[in-house]
């Protein structure tokens, strides 16, 4: 697979049959950036672990057997904090402010903020990870998902409980990597 960005800034993934699929992500300087949201952080962690975006701090190890099938070393389960896998950067945002609170001159809240209580995160795959190409299939699968539940004029696609947000539809991104 390969990819290109068109004149409007839309990223397209090209499959083996030369079909170009527009996707909701950006590549800049060889680094892939995605904006996502889901019901909760546990969903993000479960899917992130299953696709290799995230890993456990202590990865664990498989059972080791000798040639006769005897256990030489028991399996060790992965444990510890869930962290970005090597070459990835993840920013956990959490709930997102849609409309800020209105305060009076004394700092008292006049109108409460409007919040999107879903869990939001941004992730970046470094150029080495991008060059391996696994992300291309993720993005194509996301684009075949159901329409997400947008905020304002956003567009998103949902699969496995996670919405991939179209970066071109976000008027003011709140978390950018410089």
Record field, number of beta strands: 16
Number of helices: 3
SS content category: alpha+beta
Termini separation:
28 Å
- How confident is the prediction overall: mean pLDDT? 89
Shape: globular
Ranges where pLDDT stays below 50 over 5 or more residues in a row are none
- The count of domains is 1
Instruction: Characterize the largest beta sheet: strand count, sense, and whether it forms a barrel.
Output: 7 strands, antiparallel
- Rg, Cα atoms, Å: 20 Å
Beta-strand content estimate: 35-45%
Helix and strand sequence: EEEEEHEEEEEEEEHHEEE
Fraction of residues in helix: 10-25%
Q: Can you describe this structure in just a few lines?
A:
With 178 residues, the protein is of the alpha+beta class. The chain contains three helices and 16 strands.
Describe the structure.
The strands form 5 sheets. Strands 4, 5, 10, 13, 14, 15 and 16 form a 7-stranded antiparallel β-sheet that branches. A 3-stranded antiparallel β-sheet has the order 1-2-3, covered by helices on one side. The model has no long low-confidence stretch (mean pLDDT 89). The protein is 15% helix and 44% strand. It has one domain. By secondary structure, the protein is α+β, with helices and mostly antiparallel strands.
List the helices and strands and how they pair.
Blueprint: E1 2-5, E2 11-14, E3 20-23, E4 26-28, E5 31-38, H1 41-51, E6 54-58, E7 64-65, E8 71-73, E9 79-84, E10 88-99, E11 102-103, E12 109-111, E13 114-125, H2 127-132, H3 134-143, E14 146-147, E15 156-159, E16 162-165
Antiparallel strand pairs: 1-2, 2-3, 4-5, 5-13, 5-16, 6-9, 7-8, 10-13, 11-12, 14-15, 15-16
């Amino acid at each position: 697979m390969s990819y290109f960005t068109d004149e409007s800034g839309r990223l397209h993934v090209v499959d083996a049959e030369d079909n170009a699929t527009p996707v909701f992500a950006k590549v800049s300087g060889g680094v892939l950036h995605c904006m996502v949201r889901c019901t909760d952080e546990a969903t993000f962690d479960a899917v992130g672990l299953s696709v290799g975006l995230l890993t456990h701090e202590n990865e664990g190890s498989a059972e080791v057997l000798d040639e006769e099938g005897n256990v030489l070393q028991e399996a060790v389960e992965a444990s510890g904090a869930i962290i970005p896998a090597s070459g990835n950067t993840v920013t956990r945002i959490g709930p997102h402010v849609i409309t800020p609170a209105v305060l009076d001159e004394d700092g008292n809240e006049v109108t409460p903020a409007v919040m999107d209580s879903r869990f939001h995160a941004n992730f970046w795959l470094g150029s080495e990870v991008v060059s391996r190409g696994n992300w291309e299939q993720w993005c194509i699968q996301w684009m075949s998902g159901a329409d997400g539940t947008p905020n304002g004029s956003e567009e998103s696609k949902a699969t496995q409980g996670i919405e991939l947000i179209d970066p071109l539809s976000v008027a003011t991104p709140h978390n950018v990597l410089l």
